[in-house]
Amino acid sequence: MVDSLVLVVLIDGLIHALASGLAGYAVAVRSGRRVWPAVVLCILLPWLGVAILAASSGARLRAARSPRNRARNIASISLLVGGLLIFASLLDAWATVSGHERTYAESFSAGPGDTGFGIMVVGIVGLVLIAMAAASWFHGGLRFGIPAAWVTAALATVMIDLAVISALLDGFVGRLRNLSADQASAQLSVGGGTWLALLGAVLGLAGALAMVLSTMSSVSAPLGAAVQAASGSGFGQPSRSDNNSAVADAWSATSTDQWGGTRAQTTGGADPWAGGSSGSGETPGSTADRWG
Questions:
Q1: 289-292, long-range: CB < 8 A, 24+ apart
Q2: Which of 132, 157, 221, 257 is most buried, by the most CB atoms less than 10 A from its CB?
Q3: pTM (2 d.p.)
Q4: Could you say which DSSP state residue 221 is in?
Q5: What is the tally of structural domains in the chain?
Q6: What is the pLDDT of residues 158-212, one digit of tens each?
């Protein structure tokens, strides 16, 4: 039993480390930092490393709507289905306990739906996932993706722990039969509600990570436009000077928002992240708001 509990702790830590590492990778790319040191920091310090990385990025990270893409659509659908499955788990038992002693036998099932407090807790969790789905659909970006990844990772680990601990308890109570010389026995089995909630938690985690990944496509958009504009030279191709102009136009026409999105901007040769009024159309204080 001790070995199984240690394995559960390792699985929980691995889930949080991987989710935190992915979030750290997204923050590093969006803020122009070196990727691998950021990823290692976020893996060694799950979620705390992400907070440190985001706080130290300053005005390079901003809150804005992320581009509509396939990853963002998948995130919205996964989070929505996950929330609905959490609600559906209230309709079935989460565990069934049965046992007998000589001529007497008893069996009963239980779940959060049997108490008002359980319904409230599970309902809040389902509503949180559905709210995250709405945030992904209407806004997206790291502003919502990172908190969603943290919440769903915690939910997934809790549901995995419940399933594993239930299996361990089943093995423990099964030993009563040996201790009682086959005079009594007991059995604990995981109900359908637990599996529905676990599936909903896993789908929610997958959706949250997809929301984080959906912000990555906007990073390469200006670069792709610049490379395409500058590709090749020869018959039917622009000259080197024309290529340079195309690259400059591609970069100045689109400014990639670091929290997930793009916005039209003419920089007039100035640093697009410097703020101010030098051709950017923004006030100096507007770039300081990283969370929107």
A1: 289/62, 289/63, 290/54, 290/57, 290/58, 290/59, 290/61, 290/62, 290/63, 290/259, 291/63, 291/143, 292/62, 292/63, 292/64, 292/143, 292/259
A2: 132
A3: 0.69
A4: H
A5: 2
A6: 999 988 888 777 766 666 666 555 666 667 788 899 999 999 999 999 999 999 9
Q: Which amino acid is at 116?
A: G
| N residues, the chain | 292
Within-domain flag for 182? yes
Q: In what order do the strands lie in the sheet with 104-110?
A: 104-110, 95-101, 184-190
Q: Tokens standing for 224?
A: 């792709």
45: in domain: yes
99 pairs with which residues across the strands?
106, 186
In a domain, 263, yes or no: no
What CA–CA distances, in Å, run from 223 to 220, 246, 254?
Answer: 5, 12, 10
Q: Same domain, yes or no, for 53 and 119?
A: no
